[in-house]
Amino acid sequence: MKLNIMDILQNAEPLLRTFWYIAAPVTVIFIIQTILTFIGGDSMDGVEADFEGDLSDGDAPFQLFSLRNLINFLLGFGWAGIAFYNLIPNKTLLILTAVISGVLFVAIFFMIVRVFLRLAEDNSFKMEKALHKTAEVYLTIPANRMGKGKILISVGGSLRELDAMTDEKEPIHSQSTVKIVKIENNNILIVEKI
Question: Can you tell me the distance from the alpha carbon of 179 to that of 165, in angstroms, rounded to the nearest whole number?
């Protein structure tokens, strides 16, 4: 006797059948979405709902109500309903468990995205980040902008050696502490002794 999946679904109870009808197609969509994300297609991000969710910090890079999050919720909801169907006899409690599982799937997705976004942060050095910071003179800075010296400055957790000049009447010697007061020509720091 040959078993047919559709015959099994037709004989299942309506709630279990509903969980299967949600879980199966959503799983296929999730797999396609995941493949597209890893090959760079990510076409699902352009299809979003007309309303946005605020995630408390204004720099959230993703919307709470999107097709991707709906897929994640339904994936957790459908498979939790199937997994707990025989374990939880109370149907209301079963549906509540499935809803909580769906919400957990969305929360886990948010955490994963947040981790990946931290990995993709732009940590390139921008000269403007050095403005108004203190630094240590590495090579003596000649007085009255008569030449360049070097300073060591920590910006964004990394130590940089940068060119510096000063308007002061006396040179600023090595190991002196200075403050960056201006940036000229996008690459020369103007400093003053502290």
Answer: 11
Separation CA 113–CA 123 (nearest Å): 18
**Cα separation of 11 and 24, whole Å?**
17
- Please name which of 98, 153, 100, 101 lies closest in space to residue 127, comparing C-alpha atoms: 153
Q: Is the pTM of this model over 0.70?
A: no
Tens digit of pLDDT for each residue in 49-92? 444 444 444 444 456 678 888 999 999 999 999 999 999 999 99
| Whole-number percent of the chain with pLDDT over 70 | 82
**Which three-class secondary structure state does DSSP give residue 124?**
coil
What is the torsion angle, in degrees rounded to the nearest 10, for the CA atoms of residue 54, residue 60, residue 65 and residue 70? Answer: -140
